[in-house]
Amino acid sequence: MQNTRIILLSILMGGILVVLNSTQGFSIPAFSRQYKTSCTTCHIAPPARNAFGEAFRRNGYVMPMSDDEFKKDEPVSLGADAWKEAFPEAVWPGVLPSSFPISAYVHQRVVVEFGEGKKGNQIEFDAPHEFELLLGGNFGESIGFLGEWVAFEKGQNAKGLKRFFIQFNDLVGPQNAFNVKFGRFEPGITDGYKDANRMTMEHVKTIDFKATGQWRPRDQQSGIELNGILNKRTNYSVGAVNGQSKTISDPTDRKDVYFRLGHKIKGMSLDGIDETGLELKTSDNMIDNTVQVGFYGYFGSIDDESYTDPIGVTHTYSRRFNRFGFDAMAGVDKLKILTGAIFGTDENVGQPGTENIDSRAWFVEGNYYIFPWMIGIARFGAAHTEQDGHELEDYTDFTPNLTLLARANVRISFEAYFKMEDSVDDKLRWFKFNTMFIF
Question: What is the pLDDT of residue 16?
Answer without folding.
Answer: 35
